[in-house]
Amino acid sequence: MAKLTQLIDNEVFRAYATYTTIVLLKMMLMSLITAYFRITRKAFVNPEDTASFCKGENAKKYLRTDPDVERVRRGHLNDLENIVPFLGIGLLYALSGPELYTALLHFRIFAGARITHTFAYLIPLPQPSRGLSWAAGYAVTISMAYKVLKTALYL
């Protein structure tokens, strides 16, 4: 079994760690953006969140949905649906012994696609920008999964 120091010395694993950190930080940023939109739009889902604006019956008017908040939430949900599989499949891929150039290409395209997808969701950019950025990231994850299966199962 490989020691942790061997993994850290592995250039592909370091690339994986770098781009994984980038997309995880981007996903964490979506939580802050959601909070920002909730506060600036005064749209909350929990009664206790309205306490800083008013008390009692007046607080109920802040218990509502807002289209901008919901848009950010959908972008965040899309991150969860796509980044979590990338984490697992990307790790297996990094450990499957790919060439550094190929691995960097996969990791960079995925990170770029997720960042582009976020901008396309938040600005919003016209379609098919969001759809294409989602498809690019999804295709990268499928490509890495195929390589893992081909290496591990000799497909």
Give a topology summary.
Elements: H1 4-9, H2 11-41, H3 67-95, H4 100-122, H5 129-153
Helix pairs in contact: 2-3, 2-4, 3-4, 3-5, 4-5
Q: Can you give a write-up of this model?
A:
It is a single chain. The protein is mostly helical. The chain is built from five helices and no strands. The chain is elongated and about 65 Å long. It starts with a helix and ends with a helix. The mean pLDDT is 90.
Please give a quick description of this structure.
With 155 residues, the protein is mainly alpha-helical. The protein contains 5 helices and no strands. The radius of gyration is 20 Å and the shape is elongated.
List keywords for this structure.
single chain; mainly alpha; 155 residues; 5 helices
Average of the residue pLDDT scores: 90
Task: Name the poorly predicted regions.
Answer: none
Strand content: under 5%
Largest beta-sheet details: none
Total number of helices: 5
List the helices and strands in order.
Answer: HHHHH
Helix content: over 70%
Q: Radius of gyration, rounded?
A: 20 Å
